Amino acid sequence: MYLMNISNYSGDLDKFQKDWKNVERFLEKHQLDGVELICYEEDYLDTLPRHILKGLHLKYFPTWLEFYKNDHQKVCEMFGGIEGVRQYYGGIHPQTLIDAFRDEYRSAQEFGVEYMVYHVSHVTTEHSFTRAFDYTDDDVLDATVELVNQAFDNDSDVMLLFENLWWPGLTLLDKEKAQRFLDRINYKNKGIMLDLSHLMISNPNLKTAREGAEYILKMIEKLGSFKEWIRGIHVNLSLPGDYLKMDHRAEYAELLKTEDPFERYLKTVGHIKKIDWHVPFDHPLVKNIIDLIEPEYVVFELLAQNLEQLDGYIDIQNKAIGRGAK
């Protein structure tokens, strides 16, 4: 099944004149079977045709570990006080996170989606610039197991797929860690959503799309039998090696001097976008990756500024995989 990512955020739907019928026509043009949705509030959901809605990308709090561990002092320092904490998480107690994911789980069941995607990662704004992490993969994985087993405490037909990132957490660079993590998740209908860009970002020495594809193929082979847990893939390309090798501590120092919270947010997002590109994987070896994994879901997870660019991106991605547009 071939899908594309989309959100019900007005800025995203502006590309389609806020009309889901235009989204349907776009999907048909590019031989796509539906969408993986990121859900913002309740906007435009009443007119969303359920038959195109196949997956739900759950909320992602990049920074959550300190909050979940109830380290109020540290969290207040990071978010400028208790109101900043409330604004970011929607509450001031760890239960807020559990409730947020429980709500989205209920939404997934009500929508009738086939799968949910959960990011297994943690990073503070500071460490996204400095990479001087004071937490490990195991710290993040252990806390995620605890949180997930509380939030998703009853099984359903909706698959729960865990996505890899390059920050501490589920990187998929260590198959034993990944297997231990999945084994401790009580939700039975589970698996992995492999994000190709996120795996590439873990190797800053990659220079070309071919090198990226060859690296991914090698890493999948290293996973051995764990590969069978991969039920879906996010297809895109990122080769930020040169940027990752730069020293960004001065940028972070400048960020701290920025008083306006929204401007700080935009600078941080700009930094992340230089790492995680969300552009088409334009090398034909991407088809070898898909053939090796044989996933149930192939999601074109691309970020475009307008419909024309998105149209071109999907064409490039289809062509690389060997699929023609109508």
From TrEMBL:
Chain ranges of the Xylose isomerase-like TIM barrel domain: 98-236
Entry coiled-coil feature ranges: none
InterPro entries: Xyl_isomerase-like_sf, Xyl_isomerase-like_TIM-brl
Gene3D superfamilies, A to Z: Divalent-metal-dependent TIM barrel enzymes
One Pfam entry name: AP_endonuc_2
Name this protein carries in UniProt: Xylose isomerase-like TIM barrel domain-containing protein
Native organism: Acetobacterium woodii (strain ATCC 29683 / DSM 1030 / JCM 2381 / KCTC 1655 / WB1)
Lineage, highest ranks first: Bacteria, Bacillati, Bacillota, Clostridia, Eubacteriales
